[in-house]
Amino acid sequence: MEDLAIFLSKSLMGWLVIQVCFTLVFIWYLRSSKKNLLPDDQLPKTAVILCLRGADPFLPRCLRSLLNQNYPQYDLKLIVDSHEDPAWKIASETITEQEATNVQISPLRIVRNNCSLKCSSLVQAIRELDDSYKVVALVDADTIVHVNWLRELVSPLGDANVGATTGNRWYVPTGRYWGSLVRYIGNVSTVVQMFIFQIPWGGTLAVKTEVLRQTELLDKWGQALSEDFMMHDILKKHGLQVKFVPSLLIVNREETDLFNLIEYLKRLILCSRLYHPRWLALVSEAVSSILFPTTLIILVLESLLEAKWEAAALFLVCYGVYTIGLLLIMLVLELEIQRMVRSNDQAIAKLSAATIIKMLIGIPLTQWVYGLAMLSSLWTSTVAWRGVSYRVQGPWNICLVEYRPYQWLDQPINSKVSL
């Protein structure tokens, strides 16, 4: 027992050191990156594609931000799941309100049975583009972008070695639900991890159309559950990089409860298992971040029950150092991200003492929720996603089990809750 406790304590401290190093590398990259924006005459014509099923909480703001980009030649292509989808009415009204002429709204015409609805929409939208579009930019409906978003996303593609550019989402920790806080805490490490492994985020992603043809990405999307995790390995095989653009960290203010969060995490973990190029590294990270601290808590309780006060105190101190270390990592990153997003006119709430205390309490809760989601995902073969079900038998063996159009009754009662 004593040997196990010593091993766990050393492992936990070692993992904390690794996380600190990753965080410092990430912060160094944020601070050292410079914006090298292309002038108007060098920016290629771009198609911005937004796939919609259901009316996301901030959809009108998302659309208005996309329709007012500081970019010379771009068109917004909306693919809505069906005419009766709530998103169709909201999108049509927003387009009229903005008097936009560079936008096209279309229904999803062919519901493919061997990929996700989003992948079906992407394939349809991209295959309908003419040769004048040199870049395709993907965006999600939970992304409210700043005015230079598209210019900053496309400019790095001027480098012949860069095949795709991406940003990431940053949740706020000040929501009313514990699920929102747990999602925030988990996302802090996810953002750093995606930067380290060059994993793009489909919510802000640009790729050259010639790269789409060269890598046959559309064929892959046409039989996949998710579009972004796979891109790193595919581009790497063609000698291309995925470039993370720090100024494209986008603030997300949506809410979620714990039940819906677990379902989201199960789907995310399943997609990671199917397509993430470093899945085994993720498993190792999960063991270090979830199993080790949880086992240490169990040893603390066992030591207390057996009246081994010194051992209990030692284990508790070790766990406390690890937890406070994680809290400090989050606070440092939060301050750094706040500095960055304010420069893009994205207002973000300052952290109060009460929020910091909730973050401290939320760390072990996050470990348990993620652990539960990871265990549940191991035997998950059916995924429910916005009212439709998929049977998953492999990365390229996806079956749409049940489809129905999204309805107004499917919308959450709370208008700020993620779909």
State the distance separating the first and last CA atoms.
46 Å
Count of DSSP H/I helices? 13
Strand content: 15-25%
Mean pLDDT: 91
Poorly predicted ranges: none
- Overall number of strands: 10
What is the 3D form?
A: globular
Task: Give an account of the 3D structure.
The chain is α/β, with parallel strands linked by helices and 419 residues long. The protein has helices at 2-32, 59-66, 86-98, 117-127, 149-154, 178-197, 209-215, 217-221, 231-237, 258-275, 279-305, 309-342, 353-378; strands at 46-52, 74-80, 103-107, 135-139, 162-171, 204-208, 241-252, 382-385, 388-392, 398-402. The strands form 2 sheets. It has a 7-stranded mixed sheet with strand order 3-2-1-4-6-5-7, with helices on both faces. The chain has a 3-stranded antiparallel sheet with strand order 8-9-10, with no helix packed on it. The chain is globular, with a radius of gyration of 22 Å. It starts with a helix and ends in a 17-residue tail after the last strand. The mean pLDDT is 91.
